[in-house]
């Protein structure tokens, strides 16, 4: 009887210890998502090395999860899916309200500025020439490339237009090149990432005021100790030659700590709610 009890107790102890190890390991694994301004291949190429560097620096494991489109990405963070995410400035307003995400990193020098581009050989030279026409945008809630531009065109410039959503910045630019739409919304930094033949055949006819750049945000369920450790590791990457190359690839060459109150709260006052589109799953 005692031997049977000992064997039972031993098996139970092994199961409990295995469960504890499994749970402990799970706490060191965090999901990471990136707003899909570019293709999934480009996101994986640029962000995987960053996450590998963070794993080495922090001891945590990061799993990169890709989104096929910006609306899909918005659904994911509105449901609290990723632990960490890189998103546009107004997404940080939406994510904070929906799930308590907080910005922890942004680039110190880069500013986000929306642009409207047309073909270089186009007869369209000003936004007034777009009255009553079609304009391509990456998605409804892409901040500087769509949301902000649509609000400014409608509220300030009194331009009436039909928005066409192309899913990514890359697609939007190609809508113009292929004459699907006379103009496209975008931002300078994504345009500069395009091939030379794309850049050389487009011209900018409109710019928005600048705003703070895309932040990296963290969900409220992640402990402050983990968030701070990740924040410090990203900033430390900028002190090495290899780290600078990695950060430049993800458009954060000069990372600094940030907060919602300091850098992104002002975006709530732009009255953009009427232009936000909420996506059903």
Question: Within the largest sheet, what's the order of strands?
Answer: 2-1-3-12-4-13
CATH homologous superfamily caption of the largest domain: Periplasmic binding protein-like II
- Which percent bin holds the helix content? 40-55%
| DSSP E strands, number | 13
Tally of helical runs: 11
Number of domains: 2
Task: Report low-confidence residues grouped into runs of 5 or more.
Answer: 8-26
- Kindly provide the name of the CATH class of the largest domain: Alpha Beta
Kindly report how far apart the N and C termini lie: 57 Å
The major sheet is characterized as:
6 strands, mixed
CATH architecture of the largest domain: 3-Layer(aba) Sandwich
The run of helices and strands is HEHEHEHEEEEHEHEHHEEEHHEH
- Content of β-strand: 15-25%
Q: Radius of gyration in whole Å, from Cα? A: 22 Å
